[in-house]
């Protein structure tokens, strides 16, 4: 096969209201397309349910600890697969905008 000149190994993390997903892929940055998917995972993390059950409008300490453990695990795998830390990106669901402590949680990531 032909070599891709603008190849970058990237990791994308989607921190959703019910799960956290990560995809590690080699991406042709000139074309904006995935050349090869190296790893993909989805792990349940019930941020949305936790926030809705909250009396004070915050995510619980337990939920945030579970979320951080999940993110650390995903990040470790991405780094193990050769993704430079500067090539890791994440997006988060609206739960983190609505929860009183959501933005401070994201700032720790």
UniProtKB/TrEMBL annotation:
Gene Ontology BP annotations: regulation of transcription by RNA polymerase II
Entry-linked SUPFAM superfamilies: Actin-like ATPase domain
Protein name as it appears in the record: Uncharacterized protein
Native source species: Eutreptiella gymnastica
């Amino acid at each position: 096969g032909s070599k891709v000149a603008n190849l970058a190994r990237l990791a994308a993390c989607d921190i959703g209201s019910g799960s956290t997903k990560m995809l590690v892929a080699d991406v042709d940055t000139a074309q904006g397309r995935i050349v090869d998917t190296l790893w993909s995972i989805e792990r349940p993390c019930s941020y949305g349910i936790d926030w809705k059950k909250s009396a004070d409008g915050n995510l619980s300490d337990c939920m945030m600890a579970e979320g951080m453990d999940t993110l650390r695990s995903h990040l470790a795998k991405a780094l193990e697969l050769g993704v430079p830390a500067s090539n890791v990106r994440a997006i988060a669901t609206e739960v983190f905008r609505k929860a009183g402590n959501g933005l401070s949680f994201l700032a720790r990531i």
